[in-house]
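2024-03-11 09:14:02 INFO worker-7 job=invfold-0412 stage=load source=structure_tokens
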């Protein structure tokens, strides 16, 4: 089930970027800025709200269906906008809105499903969040109509397969394995604020490393692959070494790479890999302090990525 969620994550992020760049290659710069800004605001900053929805809904597969429906409408809107040269702000913004909301619904749905089914296992969390980075790289480098429709068809088939499997399985066993602790409200919100600040800082540092790497197609794919690998193995590192020991080692490596980042691309790539290894740890800790609110926990951390990204590009 984690594997299916992870593949869906790769395909959905790739589909979104594919749509955006197909439109960007057809229209003016003014539309390009607006569509990317709208998409990112909706895809990330709405996740705390869609996360609350994921926690509240009993039949969560409807959330996945809603996401797939919105993404399908976005693909159809993209085809219409480009085919008929609908260059108005309404046409391109409609695509961005549909993509952003479809993406937001999927991420919190997937984050909650993986956390619940695996008892908040950092290895599974890292695997799920990791594939989106490579999906973005694939969508950016290979954006085309065949890729767009192949991704959409694959998403529909895999979503149907997931729901059919999900309805046959009893999730209560996985739910009961999750770590459930009761903390005071003050501790919970202070912890979440700290974790969100860590995520913002990680986004800022990660963009610092990425921003200094030339953006050829091969390097974009390499950046995506290293980001994916870092998130994927981060959960395993933390599981083997312990969270505190792992974070100390990673923070030291990141600091060294920041100091010597002018020494070459290898240092930048190592730093980027190290930064991404912390992703499953922060998500795991957020789920610990918000038991049975995994959708909200995922959404809050996702929303915290945007301020760090904006600070890095200003």
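2024-03-11 09:14:09 INFO worker-7 stage=emit residues=314
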């Amino acid at each position: 089930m984690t594997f299916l969620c992870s593949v869906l994550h790769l395909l959905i992020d790739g589909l979104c970027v594919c749509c955006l760049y197909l439109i960007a290659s057809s229209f003016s710069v003014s539309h390009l800025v607006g569509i990317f800004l709208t998409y990112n605001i909706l895809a990330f900053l709405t996740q705390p709200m869609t996360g609350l929805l994921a926690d509240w809904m009993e039949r969560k597969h409807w959330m996945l269906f809603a996401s797939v429906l919105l993404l399908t409408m976005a693909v159809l809107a993209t085809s219409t906008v480009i085919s008929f040269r609908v260059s108005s702000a309404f046409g391109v913004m409609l695509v961005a809105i549909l993509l952003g909301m479809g993406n937001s619904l999927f991420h919190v749905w997937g984050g909650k499903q993986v956390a619940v089914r695996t008892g908040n296992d950092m290895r599974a969390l890292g695997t799920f969040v990791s594939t989106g980075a490579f999906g973005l790289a694939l969508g950016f480098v290979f954006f085309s109509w065949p890729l767009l429709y192949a991704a959409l068809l694959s998403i529909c088939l895999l979503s149907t397969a997931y729901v059919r499997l999900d309805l046959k399985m009893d999730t209560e066993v996985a739910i009961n394995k999750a770590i459930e602790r009761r903390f005071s409200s003050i501790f919970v919100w202070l912890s979440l604020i700290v974790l969100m600040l860590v995520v913002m800082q990680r986004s800022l540092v990660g963009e610092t490393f990425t921003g200094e790497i030339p953006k050829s197609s091969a390097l974009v794919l390499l950046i995506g692959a290293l980001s994916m690998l870092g998130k994927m193995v981060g959960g395993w590192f933390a599981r083997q070494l312990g969270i505190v020991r792992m974070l100390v080692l990673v923070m030291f490596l990141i600091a060294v790479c920041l100091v010597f980042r002018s020494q070459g691309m290898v240092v930048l790539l190592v730093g980027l890999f190290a930064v991404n290894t912390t992703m499953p740890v922060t998500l795991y800790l957020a789920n610990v302090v918000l038991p049975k609110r995994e959708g909200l926990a995922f959404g809050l951390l996702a929303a915290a990525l945007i301020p760090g990204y904006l600070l890095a590009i200003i």
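2024-03-11 09:14:09 INFO worker-7 stage=report msg="The chain is about 85% helix and 0% strand."
2024-03-11 09:14:10 INFO worker-7 job finished
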